[in-house]
TrEMBL record:
Record InterPro entries: AhpC/TSA (IPR000866), Peroxiredoxin_AhpC-typ (IPR024706), Peroxiredoxin_C (IPR019479), PRX_1cys (IPR045020), Thioredoxin-like_sf (IPR036249), Thioredoxin_domain (IPR013766)
Signal peptide region: none
GO CC list: cytosol
SUPFAM superfamilies for the chain: Thioredoxin-like (SSF52833)
Source taxonomy: Bacteria, Deltaproteobacteria, SAR324 cluster
Species: SAR324 cluster bacterium
Record's protein name: Peroxidase
Amino acid sequence: MALRLGDIAPDFSAETTHGNINFHDWLSDSWGILFSHPKDYTPVCTTELGYMSKIKPEFDKRNVKILAISVDPIESHKGWVGDINETQNTTVNFPIIADTDRKVSDLYDMIHPNADDTLTVRSVFVIGPDKKVKLTITYPASTGRNFDEVLRVVDSLQLTSDYQVATPVNWKHGEDCIVVSSIPTEDIPEKFPKGHREIKPYLRYTPQPDI
Ligand code: BEZ
């Protein structure tokens, strides 16, 4: 069955371009992103892994580890990484799982037979330090993902796990947040001393509390 938000991200051992890992041990107390791509030496995947390498410092700042996966073998990954580095002007700086037996792909339901019965689609899982699945995204093979959006969601997830706020449409780090509805309006000043705006009794904004 497909993984749902709040499920424990299944643990596994796997061979990667950075050696063998046990997923939960490797994550330790970090957040994690596990993302699949259909195939090595393909154009969209090349741009995706190149871009992810470039913005990895942003994920590092947020204590998020990155792990890629496809069903191609390790030697293929290693050769392709050279192409990514060359063509995308970067250095791939995270491990890529060689899931040749599709063990991890099956655990995470990354193969969608009605799209392609042998290759992984473009899945993204964000996993919290509690090892629970916080976000799932599935893109078709023909559409490269927006990893800036994944970073934006990580910002929202980390903020909303620490404060009683939610983030509105298209929110970005630094913008006003929504006070969760379980907080009575009269309690807002004490909890959010930066102030608040009440648009409707159910729609109350406050400045981002952690900056
Ligand atoms: C690509 O990464 O370019 C790609 C991979 C599989 C199918 C279609 C496109």
